[in-house]
């Protein structure tokens, strides 16, 4: 029989005789029912042999031990850090080729009260104690946050997601190499935020067992998504609940991670896609200052157009539009929000994900909003002004930023028909033009739309053979890789490098290369979206049962394991030292404002395990200029397109036209003024001339006769008489 507790208050007596009140649980636990998933067990049950008990500020918690076998490293050391045998003084304590490591796993730990009921569309409420009876059992994957799981862009979409979505989702998972208090060991901490464009995703797909075996405490965090996490009225009081959830998780880590073997002063905040954007936004937020010492962003850029909603009016309109779809219409905006809060969670998700719900001026309706509180100003503006006023960057910590060679495959994965990887030849020129027109519309490019679309399509058209859909599919992915990732990531790395150290990496590793029968990504796709995460979380070394459900059947090669060993070592070095260079190699230069260094990762052979990759400079700089400069400048022109090298000359010509126009106006003004002054002068002198003429006529009519006037002699005599009279 299921026993549910609706209200539970205990009074206990402490050794000092004081009476203490234990708060009732905020969640509704199911006690000791073997037929359902439980987070509690029968009171008084001791931990099993493969379990571990940890005491925290919120109460005791039980996790599980997981044994990993045949790993080529230990939590304390990597093989690349050992002295080679060829050296005069060989390694005194050589590392075994295969090592067995135990990782302590705690799943489904609540870090805030469930944001349900009256807490919907509200900031997260701090957790007082673990729900249920003590100890809290943390051994099962929790529910994921509300979303449409069918819209998640990922590989293996034919396999149905095993996760259940719920509003009660503010949980985190912890993976630690050592939780023994007696050892006194405290490892650096990596807090990871999953991606999914702030609309989808979950932490359960990214188990941290292999990363923890590298010598760090891994914390995976879930946060509210879509309307549940970012519904806003455009003011500083509403919205950005997802970012607040993340901050609450960071506070939980600060207060409790020492109990799990972590160092609360050595936290690295990392994330993929939307999680990477979030990590950079926390760098810009004064409310997150002091909660982490370094940041990592995989395939995410805070300056990207799709990352935030910069106009408060747009956020307001999106909320009103959702309310209208749900039948919540009122003159008072807060009443609309209150009405939406009464709707069912599935009803709300359907409302803002249905195709008939129009989305204007961004990829999604609900995103982080520039509210002046959580995010003080638009990241692009704040970072450009930061060298002048450092107050806009509260946490200028070291930043690791990276992308995959074909992150734009996300656009393919979003399309369920194309995502099956069988209809890739459906990508034709018409589809490219349609997607590009939608991109231009979502960016609110109201001027010169046709020229913009034509310029973009012409740059990515496969000119040698425009009917080759295979090559066009690759060009299609390149287009969206550059638009959504390459260009904004380059801009973000450049601006952040003005403030602190930035390390940039481009992942070009292609899984199962040379083993076509083992490939789990399409032949025409290179380093795909999330391919760096497959390396980072060590799936090549993880047993199938520890991987995501859609990768249980994947067979990894020896090259995949070599690449994984190098990549996880890069992560380990950065999390530990804020510098990804290997101990035996320091050629990876930090990204500079005028020297855009980056590391190209594409190593597979064992002899390359001692270096992280190949150092290069200015990744796809021509493409970056096309998107960040030429397309932006083209919006202002009402003419046809021009090649990028002519844009600066046209700008100079426009300035010249302006100067000439101003000079012409000045000359016209002077001409009019001169004509006016001349006219006024004529009006003054004409009466005087007429008066003098009248006086002269009167004088001649009085003295001489007509004959004397007409005769030359008479005129001469008259002149003589005039002169004599004057004398």
Automatic annotation (TrEMBL):
Domain of life according to the entry: Eukaryota
Domain Carboxylesterase type B, chain residue ranges per copy: 99-606
Keywords: Membrane, Signal, Transmembrane, Transmembrane helix
Membrane-spanning residues: 655-676
Pfam families registered for this protein in UniProt: COesterase (PF00135)
Positions of region (Disordered): 706-727
InterPro entries: AB_hydrolase_fold (IPR029058), CarbesteraseB (IPR002018), Carboxylesterase_B_CS (IPR019819), Neuroligin/BSAL (IPR051093)
Coiled coil: none
First and last residue of the signal peptide: 1-18
Polar residues compositional bias, start-end: 706-718
Family: Belongs to the type-B carboxylesterase/lipase family.
This protein's name: Carboxylesterase type B domain-containing protein
Annotated organism of origin: Mesorhabditis spiculigera
High-level lineage: Eukaryota, Metazoa, Ecdysozoa, Nematoda, Chromadorea
